[in-house]
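## retry 2 of 3
previous attempt timed out at serialization; input unchanged, resubmitting
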Amino acid sequence: MIVRPRPHWLHLLFVRRGSLVTQIFSQQLFILALSSAVVVLHGQVFHWKVTLTSGPFSLMGVALAIFLGFRINASYDRYWEARKQWGAMLVETRNLARKALTLIDQGSDARRFVLALAGLAATTRNQLRGEPATLGTEALLPDELRATLAGVRQPPQRVLLWLAQWLQQERQAGRLQPMLANTMEDSLDALSMAIGSCERIANTPLPFTYSVILHRSAYLYCMLLPFGLVDVIGVMTPLVVTFVSYTFFALEALSDEIEEPFGRAPNDLALDALVIGIEGSLRELLGETPPPPLQPDHNYILR
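## retry succeeded, writing output
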């Protein structure tokens, strides 16, 4: 996730980091070269004049813009839903930690339970990113639980099971009233729902054909546009066409990034920072010093 102060409007015109320029530079260079060749040849291909006008491109541009807008909205909806599910995880882990520290009688080791909630967030991040299940859980999960996560297809569910078993032990020991145990189980169900929603987003991409159609349409439009403008604006054709192609290519690249919001692309969710935030909140409830929050790197990217 790109996190930076909004620069001055003049600086914003020339900012490079976060503008997707590096990702689409080769495409932009190709369109610029093609447009320049069209201007030099006066719209001729093998001594045959390509007689296109700007009229059809106006209609095609509107249709392509609507199609591209729908694509970016579909991708952003996945991105925002993923962020809401992680927000729900933050709320439910805080609720469970507070109840474990205040509603369970003396004699229980509530600290293990609270830290395991932070470990649940870490294992969820690891699963969504395809990383080792125990990454970053050394100080959060009990050793016996971490040993069982290797080779498990759903590590977060194993952690949820351990949390539920801990509540069961406290209830059987008489330190947790059955009615209070049911309310805490409801919070565990909410955590399971949030994790399942993130898995649905990660395992169900947008239809591939949708991306193919948009990609082909955008490239064909930008490759034909110089022939429709060369007789109207002349030497300004490469500049105008390159600017138009930047809009289409940049939005397409952005939609590709946020379609899968759990990766490590610059515009993906900052899952590392979210996990650190959850751990910090829970350690503060325990009266311990929270880990320092993550800061953006020199490229203003927060992981």
